[in-house]
Amino acid sequence: MIDLPSFIDHSLLKPEATLSDIERLCAEAKEYRFYAVCVNPCYIEAAKDFLKDNNVKVCTVIGFPLGANSKEAKIYEAMDARLRGADELDIVMNVGIARSGQWDAVYRELRDIVIATEGIVHKIIIETGLLKEDQIKKATEIVLRSGAEYIKTSTGFTGRGVTLDDLRIIKEVAGNYLKIKASGGIRTFKQAMELIEAGASRLGTSSSVQIIKEWNSYSRHT
């Protein structure tokens, strides 16, 4: 049996999230041994404080949720997040520019963000629900070239969430050279296990506690 909590980025990215919500998120992450919490940039330092003397990582988002900021703004945001103590960055690709076929511009933006924030983990969100299959493949190629460690499927804010077909398409291009973070609409233990079996190395979800409760119940009965 896999150690499911170590796959999970316990996420709270709602615009109305309060400081007490972030404190609760971090307490749950410590209790259930999640790999990371994922919070909006304004809460990086608070999350680091709530998680001090603990191994849980702090992940934040860049260009979230639309990815349509200027390259310079995203680079600054990424550098600022690193300075504030973020361990990992989930960076939204500019989907509109990608859908316009301007793949060189997409590559340059992602490459420059990665170069500007060396020494930190980068996960590039390509928003699979807004892309056709050939565009998902092209986006995967771009993420591979950018130097990022992960490709992430979705923000969970736009279009549909992750599907098993998304992971199949990404794996065809990435093989084992790029890790996959599946995200968007992951609400059950069954979904989580299917995605991991399909190749996900990390899961982004706000339903983490319920998923682990289902996992614990399943483990007791097997």
The arrangement of helices and strands along the chain is EHEHEHEHHEHEHEHEH
Please tell me the CATH architecture by its name: Alpha-Beta Barrel
CATH class: Alpha Beta
CATH fold call: TIM Barrel
Q: Any idea what the radius of gyration is? A: 17 Å
What can you tell me about this protein's structure?
With 222 residues, the protein is α/β, with parallel strands linked by helices. The chain has one domain: Aldolase class I (TIM Barrel). 45% of the residues lie in helices and 17% in strands. The chain has helices at 19-32, 44-50, 71-83, 95-99, 103-116, 133-146, 164-174, 189-197, 208-220; strands spanning 8-12, 36-39, 57-62, 88-92, 121-125, 150-152, 179-183, 202-205. Strands 1-2-3-4-5-6-7-8 form an 8-stranded parallel barrel, surrounded by 6 helices. Helix 3 (71-83) links the parallel strand 3 (57-62) and strand 4. Helix 6 crosses helix 7 (164-174). It is globular.
Please give a handful of descriptors for the protein shown.
222 residues; alpha/beta
Question: What are the SSEs and their pairings?
Answer:
Blueprint: E1 8-12, H1 19-32, E2 36-39, H2 44-50, E3 57-62, H3 71-83, E4 88-92, H4 95-99, H5 103-116, E5 121-125, H6 133-146, E6 150-152, H7 164-174, E7 179-183, H8 189-197, E8 202-205, H9 208-220
Parallel strand pairs: 1-2, 1-8, 2-3, 3-4, 4-5, 5-6, 6-7, 7-8
